[in-house]
Amino acid sequence: MKKTGLFNRSLFIKVLYKLRGGVITKRPGGTPKGWVLFSHDITPFINPDHPLEAHANYWTAVDMVQTFLEKGYAVDIINSRNKTFLPKKYYTYFVDLEQNMDRIAHLLNKDCIKILHITCAHWLFQNTAEYKRCLALKKRRGVVVLPSRLTPRTHSIERADVATMIGNDFTEETYAFAGKKIYRTPLPPSRLCDFPEDKDFDAARKNFIWFGGAGAVHKGLDLALEAFSEMPEYTLTIFGKSTTDEEFTSAYKKELTELPNIHVLGFIDFQGEEFRKIQQNTVALVYPSCSEGIAGAPVMSMHMGILPIVSYESGVDIAESGITLKENTIECIRESVRTIANLPTEELRRRSKIGWEHARSYYTRESYGNAYRAFVDELEKGMHKKS
């Protein structure tokens, strides 16, 4: 976005958003056939300069709104964390990213279809899982790292009429108790990659990576570090937001700074040459998360031809490419790392290609868009009319 003189479009939109009471309205061409209230991450709507690739939520939010616009609906967009907005018009649909359903659902017209958009495991499962990880760390190391991925307690799924979900069988199981119809949508990646045809899998077989956002203990970095600290013959390269967590880095100072087989790179540009070198020289990702909707790291890894070693709770279907951990334990991680490292070179290439093909056929923006449009088509056919 070009900024000239006193005019800054992003700032102008943010100010306008506040003046309108925290509502951004998007209209289709012509007279709207209905209105949609859309409660989601508003970053891509108030800041046109923000890259959609920064997080899957940004791109999916824009695509969801565009879908309703294409169908002829006008859309009122509010922040999913907006605690003051009150609906004052008739809405055909209400779409919520899990934060506003409790507060707003009973204020809507009775025939409004309430749609929960699920991006993580149910809060009761997720919060319990993270507390268990923090407790296990305290028992192993005698340190307390505060949980950082706790989600708000809600009755959102109970109040919704139907749900869409970025997740797989694991994710859906955590919501099954509510008996609501859930439509699955794939996670769109931040980028697509060509298959690394020239990759030397024999040279890469002992090199592994971990990367992820906030929540090192939640996403199993502590388990990966302890596993590799006793396997000096294998290397682990770490990058991502979790490497800035002071509590965590203090607890794992030795592993993060003193061991020759563990390297910390912090933030890295996935589009850059440095990351391409890592991609070419890495055999697998280690990602033993305790709870996700769909974890982005394993999906991105398969797109890069890197085999995933993941927990079941990562919410990712990996076909026959890598390994889904039997247990989220240090020993199980070591066993899986050794299994991958000792596979024949052609088997590594075969699994890499399987993962890449699976990701390119399912985990794409096109697949997400098609799935969400199919869902809205069903809405319009009256598949979820209020009783």
Brief digest:
The protein is α/β, with parallel strands linked by helices. It is built from 16 helices and 13 strands.
Give your account of this protein's structure:
The chain has 387 residues and is α/β, with parallel strands linked by helices. It has 2 domains: 9-123 and 150-187 and 365-380, Rossmann fold (3-Layer(aba) Sandwich), CATH 3.40.50; 201-362, Glycogen Phosphorylase B (Rossmann fold, 3-Layer(aba) Sandwich), CATH 3.40.50. It has 16 helices and 13 strands. The strands form 2 sheets. It has a 7-stranded mixed β-sheet. Helix 3 packs across helix 16 (365-380) and helix 9 (221-229) crosses helix 14. The radius of gyration is 22 Å and the shape is globular. The termini are far apart.
